[in-house]
Amino acid sequence: VQLVQSGGGSVQPGGSLTLSCAVSGYRTGPNYMAWYRQAAGKEREGVASIDRAGKTTYQESVKGRFTISQDKVKNILYLQMDNLKTEDSAEYFCAADSRAISSVVAGTPVFTKNGLDAWGQGTLVTVSS
Asked: What is d(CA 14, CA 6) in angstroms, rounded to the nearest whole number?
């Protein structure tokens, strides 16, 4: 399994960016795909996830601003980021897994980081004025 990311860059607060993640190596496609980010000096955190059926889950801080989507024909995962804030600055990673991983536990978004099939190489997003 291989995930290759593209997109990212620098933008002013309020701006938009789109990240892409091309997925290969799955016979029938992953059942769990997600975007994570890691800011300098902080732990990696989940941002948004999507399952094979298209059900999405978002971290509270990005709800209404970020949109995760997938093109199952082209096997590409996207993250559309609008109204970016300085606190969104981080290195962003896509991840995929063949398992049907729950992203909500007791009503709370949960983004597992351990044991996933593969990770993208990371792409830097910088939001500053």
From this structure: 21
Measure the CA–CA gap between 54 and 110, rounded to whole angstroms. Answer: 17
CB atoms within 10 A of CB 116: 20
The torsion angle over the Cα atoms of residues 12, 18, 19 and 25, rounded to 10 degrees, is 180
| 21-69: pLDDT as tens digits | 999 999 888 999 999 999 999 999 999 999 999 999 999 999 999 999 9
Assign 61 to helix, strand or coil: helix
Do the Cβ atoms of 109 and 102 come closer than 8 Å? Answer: no
- How far is it, in rounded angstroms, from Cα 60 to Cα 109? 8
Q: Provide the Cα torsion 103, 60, 43, 36; round to 10°.
A: 60
The helix (H) or strand (E) run that includes residue 114 is none
> What Cα–Cα distance (Å) separates residue 66 from each residue in 27, 44, 60, 73, 103?
29, 17, 10, 22, 16
Q: How far, in Å, CA of 32 to CA of 35, rounded?
A: 10
d(CA 94, CA 5): 7
